[in-house]
Write a structure and sequence with these properties.
320 residues, alpha+beta, four-stranded antiparallel sheet, 9 helices, 12 strands, globular, binds (3R)-3-hydroxy-3-methyl-5-(phosphonooxy)pentanoic acid
Length: 320
């Protein structure tokens, strides 16, 4: 572990993500499709003579304080410092994020990836993908309990990926620019509660769940192909199929259904669904290109965090 002078600072950023197909089922072994979006979280690390602290916006918290604030950053930072044998080397961590927490857009995964990478680099250690990934997963673990790893993989590598727990990630290369409308329902989602609810559903209906999981793997495979072929009509249909399955396992809510209805009636979309854990969080829609602005202006009247996003090819990045 190298000593650094006072002015040395490392900044790293990672994108947020949307899960296009297969959330929840991915926790139980299915394939899923996810993509990085054009909104990022940035983490800066520098040395200090005080105690190690985390700053998010105007709020400061000490790294060793277990006060429920910034759980993901703190657990990744503590784990990374332990790995580096640098727990006694005080650092200041500053987080800036364009991703609303609780929106299901990968805010905790993006922050976790950027935190692990920035601390590794600050102490002169290589920020290899496998090291960053295994450290960042402590952040997801502290928030979710039982994550599949899809969020960390998407935020780390960027682009569009097919992911399963058994096979890890495989890059999907879209043949044309695909844009999604993302709208935050304003209701923060609670991923670990939702994962528990779905697991309970699985225990109640084991055979149905098993077969549905297999179907969702097929939906993801077809979705990956539709993205590669630029077939938005098929992709939209698959979003709708996935939404029905998510509603059946208890991941939707009346607010989410209302937002989806509003999206679909604001202008022509090929399909729409919740993205991420659900319950609240965000909805994605695949609009017909010429209808995009009309839908956004209509939806953003009630849901201020509504945006059009392309897929960000850039995953983890350092800013010199
Ligand atoms: O991070 P979220 O809340 O968008 O949800 C992640 C997707 C889940 O499938 C529900 C959980 C997981 O780790 O795969």
């Amino acid at each position: 572990v190298t000593a650094q002078n006072d002015s040395f600072e490392v900044r790293a950023s990672a994108p947020g993500k949307i899960i296009i197909l297969g959330e929840h089922f991915v926790v139980h072994g299915s394939q899923a499709v996810a993509a990085a979006i054009n909104k990022r979280a940035t983490v800066s690390v520098k040395g200090t003579t005080n105690r190690s602290r985390v700053r998010v916006g105007r709020t400061l918290s000490e790294l060793d304080q277990v006060d429920g604030q910034f759980v993901a950053v703190k657990s990744v930072a503590n784990e990374t410092l332990r790995f580096l044998n640098a727990a006694d080397r005080p650092i200041d961590i500053e987080v800036e994020s364009e991703l609303p927490p609780g929106s299901g857009l990968g805010s905790s995964a993006a922050v976790s990836v950027a935190t692990a990478a920035a601390i590794l680099r600050f102490f002169g250690e290589s920020a290899s993908e496998s090291k960053v990934s295994s450290l960042a997963r402590y952040g997801e673990g502290s928030v979710h309990g039982n994550p599949s790893g899809i969020d960390v993989a998407t935020c780390l590598y960027g682009g569009t990926i097919m992911f399963s727990k058994a096979q890890g990630q495989k890059t999907i290369v879209p043949s044309k620019d695909i844009r999604f409308i993302v709208a935050f329902s304003k209701i923060p989602r609670n991923t670990s509660a939702l994962i528990d609810r779905v697991s309970k559903h699985r225990r109640t209906y084991p055979v149905l769940f098993e077969n549905l999981s297999r179907s969702i793997s097929m939906v993801s495979t077809l979705g990956g192909r539709a993205i590669e072929e630029g077939d938005l009509r098929t992709l939209g249909t698959l979003l709708n199929v996935c939404q029905v399955a998510l509603a059946w396992i208890g991941a939707s809510s009346s607010e989410i259904e209302k937002l989806i209805e509003e999206m679909l009636s604001a202008g022509h979309c090929y399909g729409a669904k919740l993205t991420g854990a659900g319950g609240g969080g965000s909805v994605i829609a695949l609009p017909e290109y010429s209808e995009t602005l009309k839908i956004i202006s209509e939806i953003s009247k009630e849901y201020p965090y509504t945006l059009l996003t392309g897929i960000s090819e850039e995953g983890l990045k350092f800013h010199e």
